[in-house]
């Protein structure tokens, strides 16, 4: 299994968790599917109730933090996206 960047959407109870593992940020050099399953389990999330959205250079996340938009991941054009709104 190839270790690469990943984006995953997981659920627990009524909460959704959207995570990006990006080799350009932090200590990770990417992650393979088996490692991702272990990470989700360690976090108390069910890997069966999750969706791997992408991997490699298409991994990208845009997050609003303290009113400012921050980009994490590659710099490719994003064709598909999931928009989460905190209500």
Mean pLDDT score:
79
Count of individual domains: 1
Output the number of helix runs. 1
Shape: globular
Low-confidence stretches: none
Structural class from helices and strands? mainly beta
The rounded Rg comes to: 13 Å
Strand line-up across the major sheet = 2-1-3
Strand content is 35-45%
Spatial separation of the terminal alpha carbons: 38 Å
- Name the assembly state: single chain
- DSSP summary, beta strand count: 5
Order of helices and strands: EEHEEE
What share of the residues lie within helices? 10-25%
Largest sheet descriptor: 3 strands, antiparallel
Your description of this structure?
With 87 residues, this protein is mainly beta. It has one domain. 11% of the residues lie in helices and 37% in strands. It contains one helix and five strands, in the order ββαβββ. The strands form two sheets. Strands 2-1-3 form a three-stranded antiparallel beta sheet, with no helix packed on it. A two-stranded antiparallel sheet has the order 4-5. The model has no long low-confidence stretch (mean pLDDT 79).
Characteristics:
87 residues, mainly beta, 5 strands, 11% helix
What's the quick description here?
The protein is mainly beta. It is 11% helix and 37% strand.
């Amino acid at each position: 299994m190839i270790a690469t960047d990943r984006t995953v959407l997981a659920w627990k109870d009524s909460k959704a968790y959207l995570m990006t593992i990006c080799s350009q940020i932090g200590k990770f050099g990417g992650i393979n599917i088996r490692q991702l399953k272990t990470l989700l389990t360690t976090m108390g999330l069910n890997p069966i109730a999750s969706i791997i959205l992408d991997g490699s250079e298409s991994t990208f996340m845009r997050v609003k933090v303290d009113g400012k938009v921050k980009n994490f991941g590659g710099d490719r054009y994003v064709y598909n996206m999931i928009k989460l709104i905190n209500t």
